[in-house]
Each structure stands twice: as C-alpha cells, then as structure tokens.
Amino acid sequence: MLSVPNADPPGSSAHARSATACRTHRLYRMDCTEYDMLRARAAGHCEMCGVPGSETALGRLVIDHAHEYGPGAVRGLLCSSCNSALGVADRGSSAARQQFQAYMANAWFMQIAAWARTAGNLFWERPQDGFQVLEAARRYSAVLVVEQLLGFPPTMAVHTAVSPGRVALCASATFSAPDLKVRIVVSHGTTRVLVIEEMTVELAGHDPAKFSSTSDVTRYLRAARSAA
Predict the structure, then answer these.
(1) pLDDT per position as a tens digit, 87-129
(2) 219-227 — which CB contacts under 8 Å span 24+ positions?
(3) Which among 92, 10, 85 has a CA at the least distance from the CA of 47?
(4) Are 26 and 18 in contact (CB under 8 A)?
C-alpha cells in the first residue's frame, strides 16, 4: 500500500473524512492499494480545476466514474463542483471545456485497461507480478555490478509509480553504508523489459549524484574509493 504523508491523527475531522473515503472507494470496486495509487495521481487536488481537496465544500475529493460503464469505471478524483458539472450540458467557459476534455482523455480506468492489455495481466493481479519484477531486478546487470564492486547485497523493495498516462511497477535496490548510499530503480511499466528509472549515489560530504549508465556509476564509485 502506498504511503500517504502527513497522516491525520485518529479522532480528527480529517481522519474521519479519510475513513469515509476508505469505505467509499470500495463501492467503486477499488482496494486500498488501487485507491492510494489514484490519490497519488491526483496529489490532493481536483483533477479538473486543481483546487486542493481540503478547500472544497466537502473538505475532500470525491470519486468520479463513468456511469455508462458502471461503478468500476473510475475516472478520477474531483471536487464536488466539478463532479456535478460533468452532468451539465453547458460546461461554461472555453478554459473549463479544455479542462474537461483533458480530464476525460486521461480517465483512470482507461490507464489501467491500457496497462492490462499491454502487460497481459489484470490490474488486481499485479501484487503477484510485483514479486516477479523484484526477482528480475535483483538479477539486473546494474544491480549485480554495483553489488560486486561494493561487496554487499542491496535491500530490495517494490513500489508503483503513477503519473498522467502512465502506471509503472518499479523495483528498487538500495545499497547502504555509513558514508554511502546507492539507489537503483528499474521498472517494467507497460512492457516486460526492465528499464532504468533512477540511479543515484549519495556520498558523505557530497551532493547526491544522478547517473544514466552503469559504467558512469561504477566509475564514480571507484574514484570515490580511491580518494578515500
């Protein structure tokens, strides 16, 4: 389950709203992981007008779905005003129509359907697929090269990266030492071929350095070791 920063304390009004949302998303056939991914995409703002969820009339965003396809066809998270406006023929200004068109073109359930078609998996089967990605990442060439160079194994983890038009399943390999941290993130996104998402090295006393190739990472690490 994706972590959500700044969790509200039990008993607060925000916590009550969060509990309500948790019960509600199940009505739209979403489990907690799927709902967290949808929240990550919205980043706390209405996906049409951009107003923060805390500033809406309800104090939270609501789940919008395509009625013609049923409750499982979730399109996104909206403020109550934009959600109501979708049912109105006259959508106001040109800017509002552009926002509407952009939102409808990037419907959440269409993203998931595209992922399922390309990857050959159903969305709710992805936790099992996550283990496959994790195992493949553990054997990924960049991970093995850095492990051989440093002399100790990485800590592995799997997570989901969500952005407009893209849902990618990622695995990270993190090598941690008192004065060193190396993080390699790979993903398979909508394909079964692993690709590098991120390679970062943090050395004590230096700014984090990002790399695009394994050879650059190993060259940097060897130079740091020689300097030490």
Answers:
(1) 664 455 556 677 787 888 788 887 776 655 555 444 434 444 5
(2) 221/146, 221/149, 221/150, 221/182, 222/149, 224/180
(3) 85
(4) no
